[in-house]
């Protein structure tokens, strides 16, 4: 254990003086008001989790005031090969793709190419006159004893769903078993583009009346937003991300589809069980490869490459002389449009335009400041921006564990000394 901790400390000292993309690094964390000693508690927490069999490995990064103050890689990328985790390791970031979509939508708003309150049908006519599912008795078991498809009838939606509804997960699109049973009937096919598949979602049932509650739309909502970005910008989603966001911010190792050269750097996904970590099947990465771009969760990234996105937002839309968004636009994106009083939201945590927002840190039980925002991925990745403290935290793992995410948040916050 002592040897592992010493190696981790040596790695940390090494990476602190190495350039990271377009983001400068602090010679010492104290230069940006963070404690070197206290940041080591992040390293120690991850090491304990690895030793306990909760994780195979992790890469963690903390930036403050425009500089990376902490970057550490621990454990291994794959338990069988024992390939060491590295700062260049790539991760399936899943729903951490959604805030990138949020930035892209706000860029289109700034250019006057769409409005937040626009109905989705303005861009995709098939979304006009949608229906809302209403549960009815029935169900039981189907063939082979599997649960039967949910039984429901439909009523007209009281209003059309909007871009803002999709951004805030209050649309009801792809948000539960009834709507998802309809989505299964129009499932994506190999070779489908967003332009082919998304219009079919307009014929599915909404899970509830738009705006009546918050329920996460893991796939359909943000994939629809991806298509709207394509229509508004005239570019395929991957090209918009690359030319308008990734390249300007120096995010070179973030992509929808890793190249053959990048694949060896992709960490293995593991699930937790009573017998330890077990390798998990991953989504069909070859379905519509380089054709279908899932704004809901399709990106791969390193920790280093996600930091500039957070730093840009923390700085009010600009990073190292490159401005993607105006300050007021970032304020709009990261405001709590959905309060924690709406059914579906936890205490102290509202929801903004593609990000969770801490509205009451005491009620949430977190050391992060009110106004902190961010999101997570299904395989355990996590990021947050604390605008009051000018901090960005990025946690890259490939095993889902909310406890580790919350521990990471608090350990970053406790390292603030100025």
Spans where pLDDT lies below 50 across 5 or more residues? 1-21
What is the helix content?
25-40%
Radius of gyration from the CA trace?
Answer: 21 Å
Question: What's the CATH topology name of the largest domain?
Answer: Beta-lactamase
Mean pLDDT across all amino acids? 92
Structural class: alpha+beta
Domains, number = 2
What's the level 1 CATH class of the largest domain? Alpha Beta
How many helices? The count is 12
Notes on the protein architecture:
This protein is α+β, with helices and mostly antiparallel strands and 418 residues long. The chain folds into 2 domains: 2-93 and 257-292 and 299-413, 3-Layer(aba) Sandwich (Beta-lactamase); 102-234, DD-peptidase/beta-lactamase superfamily (Beta-lactamase, 3-Layer(aba) Sandwich). It has 12 helices and 17 strands. An 8-stranded mixed β-sheet has the order 1-3-2-17-16-15-14-13, sandwiched between helices. A 3-stranded mixed β-sheet has the order 6-5-7, with helices on one face. A two-stranded antiparallel sheet has the order 4-10. A hairpin with a 2-residue loop joins β2 and β3 (67-75). Mean pLDDT is 92; it is low at 1-21.
């Amino acid at each position: 254990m002592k040897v592992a901790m010493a190696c981790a400390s040596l790695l940390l000292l090494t990476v602190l003086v190495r350039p990271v993309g377009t983001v400068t690094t602090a010679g010492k964390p104290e230069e940006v008001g963070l404690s070197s000693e206290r940041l080591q508690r992040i390293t120690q927490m991850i090491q304990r989790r690895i030793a306990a069999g909760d994780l195979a490995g992790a890469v963690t990064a903390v930036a403050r005031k425009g500089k990376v103050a902490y970057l550490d890689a621990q454990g291994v990328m794959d338990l069988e090969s024992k390939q060491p985790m590295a700062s260049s390791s790539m991760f399936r970031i899943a729903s951490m793709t959604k805030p990138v979509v949020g930035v892209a939508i706000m860029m289109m708003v700034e250019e006057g190419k769409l409005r937040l309150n626009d109905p989705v049908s303005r861009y995709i006519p098939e979304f006009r006159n949608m229906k809302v599912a209403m549960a009815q008795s029935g169900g039981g078991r189907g063939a082979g004893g599997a649960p039967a498809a949910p039984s429901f009838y439909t009523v007209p939606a009281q209003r059309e769903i909007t871009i803002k509804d999709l951004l805030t997960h209050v649309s009801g699109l792809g948000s539960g078993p009834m709507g998802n049973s309809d989505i299964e009937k129009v499932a994506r096919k190999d070779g489908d583009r967003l332009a082919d598949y998304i219009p079919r979602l307009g014929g599915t049932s909404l899970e509830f009346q738009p705006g009546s509650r918050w329920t996460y739309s893991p796939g359909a909502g943000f994939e629809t937003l991806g298509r709207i970005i394509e229509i508004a910008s005239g570019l395929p989603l991957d090209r918009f991300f690359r030319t308008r966001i990734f390249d300007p911010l120096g995010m070179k190792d973030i992509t929808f589809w890793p190249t053959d050269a990048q694949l060896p750097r992709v960490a293995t996904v593991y699930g937790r069980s009573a017998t330890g970590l077990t390798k998990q099947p991953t989504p069909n990465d070859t379905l519509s490869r380089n054709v279908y771009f899932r704004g809901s969760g399709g990106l791969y990234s390193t920790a280093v490459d996600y930091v500039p996105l957070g730093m840009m937002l923390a700085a009010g839309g600009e990073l190292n002389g490159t401005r993607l968004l105006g300050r007021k636009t970032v304020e709009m994106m990261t405001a709590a449009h959905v309060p924690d009083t709406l059914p579906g939201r936890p205490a102290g945590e509202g929801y903004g335009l593609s990000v969770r927002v801490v509205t009451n840190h005491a009620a949430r039980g977190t050391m992060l400041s009110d106004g902190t925002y961010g999101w997570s991925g299904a395989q355990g990745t996590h990021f947050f921006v604390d605008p009051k403290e000018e901090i960005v935290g990025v946690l890259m793992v490939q095993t889902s564990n909310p406890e580790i995410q919350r521990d990471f948040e608090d350990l970053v916050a406790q390292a603030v000394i100025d």
